[in-house]
Write a structure and sequence with these properties.
2 domains; six-stranded mixed β-sheet; 25% helix
């Protein structure tokens, strides 16, 4: 199964690796691929004509500070607050007003938002450790997918991620795949180098 998952298109690769890692035993959770690394998020950005697509994937730990299902009122409030911040992508990604970008569609997914994880394995939930205790170990991810329509895409000279780092300080770096008319580039953004050129 692992090999099949890794054959998926690049865009699904981080998701596939996370699923493959989940299916593996607990000792392999920090594989060499580093699919789920606290402090590290991934962003795919593509500008095609007037359409800008942004896809942010992050361990929940970076955004809400925990990965377990929200059971206390404080945890639920934190999840709701993060969801509200993610629902304002124009503020989060500081898109230049001159570009005239409006949100065409957005989609937020995470087990913390009550979404059922895909490819759910019943036996995985009931795994018991050596002492016979039920062992629930999952890496919660948050996926945010945005599509913008920009009236003046030429004004999109750069993408500023400072807002993301400021809003979610536990995020130390963002691995970015950027596809624009000038080509494709892979960049690692940090709070000190948060601006990417299109």
């Amino acid at each position: 199964m692992r090999r099949l998952l890794l054959a998926l298109p690049f865009a699904l690769l981080p998701l596939a690796i996370a699923h493959a890692a989940e299916k593996h035993d607990h000792d392999h959770e920090h594989g060499s691929l580093g699919a789920h690394e606290h402090g590290v998020a991934r962003l795919n950005a593509a500008l095609d004509g007037q359409t800008l697509e942004l896809e942010l994937e992050s361990p929940a730990m970076n955004l809400v500070g925990f990965e377990h299902a929200a059971s206390t009122d404080a945890d639920k409030a934190k999840v709701a607050a993060v969801r509200a911040q993610l629902e304002k992508p124009l503020a989060l990604f500081s898109l230049p007003p001159a570009a005239g970008c409006v949100v065409a569609q957005q989609e937020l997914e995470s087990p913390l938002f009550g979404d059922k994880p895909e490819d759910h394995d019943e036996d995985h939930d009931k795994a018991k450790d050596a002492d016979g205790h039920e062992h629930h170990h999952e890496h919660s991810e948050i996926h945010a997918h945005y599509q913008f329509t920009c009236a003046t895409p030429g004004a999109l000279k750069s993408l500023d991620l400072a807002g993301v780092f400021k809003t979610f300080p536990a995020t130390q770096k963002i691995q970015v795949q950027l596809i624009s008319p000038s080509g494709q580039q892979g960049v690692e953004a940090t709070s000190k180098a948060a601006s990417l050129k299109f």
